[in-house]
Design a protein that fits this description.
5-stranded antiparallel beta sheet, 26 helices, 25 strands, 17% strand, disordered C terminus
């Protein structure tokens, strides 16, 4: 006998079979449910997506719109070039990641393998330029300067160059008409990144992977209008990728054209004169530092006084924006970003900050009148002013006795403003004020638009600084610990400053207000801010928001969107005071500190107004400022470590005015030689076919203008003799430097 059941199954076996049956039924149920979901519930959607697998898209980039000067001369446009590109996706499929192909390509293009490989590597925090900062899925340009022979070699031997294309493309070009570089104003392009594509995908202006986008200047500010809309052609393909028909096509829409208020001729003259002024300054000897002036950077702004439109804006050092086209080389990138080149990518007209020196005195004059001082009152212009044992001396003036505020502007009398500022400081309660101080001098600066951006249509403008009580408190809170750690009561100069700042760096001291009244101390301004202020004085008090863009015009010229001038306030000055300041600034050009630079100027026909400024910065040479205006234009120039205002910047500004109005060396006006005697009003014509009516420029506008302005022999000597005021450069700069202290050093109370 046996204990095994007849069925041959034990209870344990039966349980296992039941479990298996349950699992099988569960899997079948799950599979059935999933099939129902895919084929019935979401069947239509997946069928639609599946059909898309048979459609391939080909993107046709839109032609980027041109950037034109006020008369239609292209400052940035496009040209057709043979572009060799590499598909990183295809290269990464190869065993050696495409190294052999890229090496072979380098031989055809006359480049080194290293140069080619650097072009296609992706940018990240650890990878230096050059590298590709666009999408890794779009073709990466290796060069846009391929010859027809090189392109033919690549196309005919396609099997040797998988993933490599060579085809004509529209490439950005910066032609520098008449040698007008305009680099910092125009900006440059680079490929769109994946992050930017994602951020813009739900907007009304999404990016395609093939897009190039503006990174600075006008290219960035007006990128949306300039970029246009890429075309997309959709092809039906079979399972082998062969085209069997065209499904749909959206034509590319070219970008609009941007008309600027820049005049390429004036732009070239401004750039040339700024550069020449800096070269001349480097030949001059600085008696304070016992070396030649460094003149390491500078800027100039030419603005329409009645609209705020920018006619020219130059920054030095500068660069060639074409360096970015087709990908920048490592050598060029180091030049543009290295300290040794002094950062030429910076637009110092809107990003360069410095103490303004005496061109700030128009603000202090307005503040004094607001505080109740009579413009025609008598104020002592002594050669020095003592406060608590510290002596503050004049710079561009000596003892002129009792004078009014107009004459104080003309001779740039520091001690008049010292007295006024010190008097207001005492009225406000001194170093420990009770209640809310009136702070007229600081209030006026804010009303003049300082301490904040002007709103110019260029990216990355900086705000400057008005060192009022609020700023001093914030600055002290941020730096107190460091000052208290390094400061010593009996230490060296820097340690004493730190010690005193640790104790009372948040308090407004007498010396702070005295230095501030003449544009020194911690005050910072930009050239565009000062140009806006002097333009406002010219036009009757309106502070216009500066603009470079003048109109956006469609590719066929039919749709024109003008960019109208806008005001952001008025000067805090009454009509009478404004007229008195205007007369005083005319006196600066005829009998004051700038007269020696405007000898022979036709003042009766073209009234000139000016203010010189020489700002001191601890540890550096003086910064040159020259602010001027006529009824039509305001021009402000500054040169870092360049010397005095009238000495370094004065001749260049005079030459720009000569070019604008056609003034010869002997003071006569030749309208034929005038580049822009009145601001440009009309917009250039763009034809339906996209072509632009634009005048031709000479090879070098500045050189031609220079030759045309030469007067007959001895005329220049006669003009110089007409200047009745000698150069103020030989004055008492050294004594003034010793008498005034900078930064946080103890000031008398």
């Amino acid at each position: 006998m046996t204990n095994i059941p007849e069925t041959g199954r034990t209870p344990r076996v039966q349980i296992r079979l039941i479990v298996i049956q349950v699992l099988v039924l569960s899997l079948l149920a799950t599979l059935g449910g999933r099939l129902w979901y895919l084929q019935i519930r979401e069947g239509a959607e997946y069928a639609k997506e599946a059909s898309g697998n048979h459609v391939q898209q080909v993107v046709q980039p839109a032609v980027r719109g041109s950037i034109l000067d006020a008369r239609g001369v292209p400052l940035a446009d496009n040209e057709t070039r043979l572009v060799v590109s590499a598909s990183r996706t295809e290269l990464m499929k190869m065993k050696d990641d495409g190294e052999a192909v890229l090496t072979k390509l380098a031989g055809v293009l006359g480049m080194t393998p290293k140069e080619v490989k650097e072009k296609v590597r992706l940018c990240d925090a650890k990878t230096p330029q050059p590298c590709w900062n666009g999408s890794p899925y779009q073709p990466i340009p290796i060069t846009d300067e391929a010859t027809p022979r090189q392109a033919l070699q690549i196309r005919e031997r396609a099997e040797d160059f998988p993933g490599i294309t060579a085809e004509p493309q529209a490439v950005r070009r910066y032609p520098s008409p008449g040698k007008a570089n305009t680099a910092q104003v125009l900006g440059y392009l680079s490929p769109v990144t994946d992050e930017e594509i994602q951020q813009a995908q739900d907007t009304d202006s999404p990016y395609l992977r093939s897009d190039q986008v503006g990174r600075s200047g006008l290219e960035r500010q007006y990128d949306k209008a300039l970029r246009g809309k890429a075309g997309v052609t959709r092809y039906e393909v079979d399972n082998l990728g062969r085209v069997i028909g065209q499904a749909e096509s959206d034509a590319a829409q070219p970008g609009s054209n941007l008309v600027t208020s820049i005049d390429a001729r004036v732009q070239r003259v401004a750039e040339y004169e700024l550069n020449e002024a800096m070269k001349a300054a480097r030949k001059e000897w600085d008696r304070n530092t016992q070396e030649r002036y460094k003149a390491d950077a500078g800027a100039v702004v030419v603005m329409e006084a009645r609209t705020g439109r920018i006619v020219a804006m130059a920054s030095n050092p500068t660069y060639d924006p074409n360096a970015w086209v087709g990908g920048i080389s490592a050598k060029d990138y180091r030049k543009l970003t290295g300290k040794s080149s002094n950062y030429p990518l910076l637009n110092r007209a809107i990003q360069g900050q410095a103490a303004p020196g005496s061109i700030f005195k128009v603000v202090s004059t307005a503040a004094a009148v607001q505080a109740g001082y009579d413009f025609d009152g008598r104020y002592e212009c002594s050669s020095a002013y003592s406060v608590g044992g510290q002596v503050f001396k004049n710079f561009e003036s000596q003892n002129h006795g009792a004078i009014d505020l107009g004459r104080a502007l003309e001779v740039s009398c520091d001690t008049v403003y010292y007295r006024l500022a010190h008097s207001e400081w005492k009225k406000d309660g001194g170093i420990n004020p009770k209640g809310k101080p009136k702070d007229w001098f600081y209030k006026a600066a804010h009303q003049f638009g300082l301490g904040k951006e002007t709103g110019i249509d260029l990216p990355n403008e900086v705000a400057g600084r008005v060192p009022d009580r609020e700023w001093k408190q914030r600055y002290w809170e941020a730096n107190k610990d460091a000052w208290c750690k390094t400061g010593k009561k009996d230490g060296d100069y820097v340690e004493k400053i730190a010690y005193e700042n640790c104790l009372e760096g948040n308090k407004m001291r007498a010396g702070d207000e005295i230095n501030y009244s003449i544009g020194q101390g911690d005050t910072l301004v930009t050239p565009i801010q000062m140009a806006t202020i002097y333009a406002a004085i010219s036009n009757g008090g309106t502070l216009y928001t500066p603009t470079v863009g003048k109109a956006v015009i469609s590719p066929d010229g039919k749709k024109v969107e003008e960019i109208e001038p806008k005001s952001h306030g008025r000067l805090p000055v009454g009509k009478q005071t404004l007229a008195q300041m205007d007369e005083a600034l005319a006196g600066v050009a005829t009998r004051g500190t700038a007269a020696w630079r405007f000898g022979g100027w036709p003042q009766d026909e073209i009234p000139m107004h000016a203010k010189t400024g020489t700002a001191e910065v601890y540890g550096k040479q003086t910064t040159s400022w020259f602010a001027t205006y006529t009824d039509d234009y305001a021009i402000v120039m500054t040169i870092s470590q360049g010397g005095t205002g009238s000495g370094a910047s004065g001749p260049a500004v005079r030459n720009i005015y000569d070019a604008l109005y056609g003034v010869s060396d002997d003071g006569t006006i030749d309208k034929k030689n005038a580049l822009l005697p009145t601001p440009q009003k009309d917009l250039p014509k763009i034809r339906p076919d996209g072509s632009i009516t634009a005048p031709k420029l000479p090879k070098d506008v500045a050189k031609e203008q220079q030759a045309s302005q030469k007067a007959p022999e001895n005329a220049a000597e006669q003009a110089q003799a007409a200047a009745t005021v000698p150069s103020p450069e030989s004055g008492n700069r050294e004594t003034r430097r010793r008498g005034r202290r900078r930064g946080g050093r103890r000031s008398p109370r």
